Amino acid sequence: xxxxxxxxxxxIDHIAAGCGMKLYHLLGLDHTExxxxxMMNVTSHRMGRKDIIKIDxxxxxxxxxxxxxxxxATVNIIQDGRLKEKKRVPMPTRLENVLRCKNPRxxxxxxxxxxxxxxxxxxxxxxxRCAWCETRAAGI
Amino acid sequence: xxxxxxxxxxSLAELDALMDRAEDIIARPDDYADACRRKKLATLxxxxxTRTRLSFEAAMYELGGQVISVAGAxxxxxxxxxxxxxxxxxxxxYADIIAMRHPKEGAARVASMNxxxxxxxxxxxxxxxxxxxxxxxxxxxxxxxxxSGLTVGLCGDLKFGRTVHSxxxxxxxxxxxxxxxxxxxxxxxxxxxxxxxxxxxxxxxTQETDLERxxxxxxxxxxxxxxxxxxxxxxxxxxLKDSYILTPEKLKKAKKDLCVMHPLPRVNxxxxxxxxxxxACYFRQVLYGKFMREALILMxxxxxxxx
Lengths: 140, 307
Hints:
The structure holds two protein chains of two kinds. Chain A is 10% helix and 37% strand. Chain A is mainly beta. Chain A folds into two domains: 9-87, 2-Layer Sandwich (Alpha-Beta Plaits); 94-130, no CATH class. In chain A, strand 2 and strand 3 form a beta hairpin. Chain B has helices spanning 12-27, 51-62, 84-91, 107-114, 130-144, 162-171, 191-197, 211-214, 234-240, 248-251, 282-303, and strands at residues 40-45, 66-71, 97-102, 119-124, 151-155, 178-182, 205-208, 220-223, 259-261. A five-stranded parallel sheet of chain B has the order 7-6-5-8-9, with helices on one face. A four-stranded parallel sheet of chain B has the order 2-1-3-4, sandwiched between helices. The longest helix of chain B is centred in the last third of the chain and has 22 residues, at 282-303.
């Protein structure tokens, strides 16, 4: 399977297989006009199977989302057809307006313009809790 | 501006200092009779409360201060849709300190971020109720002389009970404690609470379903209410609800110096006949709560530079 190379944009590689769509939605790529390719269950020497997202265009992305979904994913920034930067995004300690608290009794469901904030409470288990009511976020 | 939203907001040294202050207020109440003269406590209670609200108000009056209040959400601008942020910004113009109860979890945190005066969380839904835990701590210290070497039994709804989680957090900071967690299978302490409060600190604990089997081992018995609405089916509730009714008969198997506590209100989980037993500490617990609230108000007003 081949996808055209991109001139300016971002390639998110080595996403754990099955997490690509979650990352696509959390990055808001379903609401962009840029060309986006998602490849799922691609064969990988290192991982066995992996997902890849290619974004054609210079989009402002919330990189914390990538670290939240998969801190082992590789972010490749392409400029003028060349690899400008390659990096991993560590698990963020704070996520703002990425997740929504599922607790119907949480103050974030009613308070005007209160941001949805989640804090990393256990890096070992990737546990995030709502900063307001401390309800645990649903897993990836 | 320092506020108290949950028990982890207070260090072990601060918990001890608050208890020391409360003991001093008990011993020398006249010395504190004008401590908060011309200072105002605003009690913002957006859901029903008897003990906590009166306790805060009595505490402020005993310190020589005054109280202004909102009598429920229906009587305030919150009924018109005003946010918590705007409410506390307004109240900050009138009062020196706020005690707030709100049905939404996290409401007190939002209030503390917007008020220009200290906020004390007097209960935010099922999330936290730190001054109840302060009352519990002083009760244990007054009744048992300290914390070391105690076997504490927590009984009833250990899954949803906010007082149990906060008390575990506070007591687990003291050395040489042991816990017996007595509950139906359906209402055991959540694993994340056990992990944080007990397992990470290697604190010994056992989980039991039969109160009578372990009551003789306990120095403290902290009763809570088993709530019907927590059960998925009526059969389980009916099967379990009477397991944890404390009666004089069950107390016969307990130590002579057991301390029976309850955050109140009780429904039927402690027989009224137990009230006559000197081991029943739950009404003294209410009294100690008032003194701890006095100590907390003093601490926060001093830190804010108001006193």
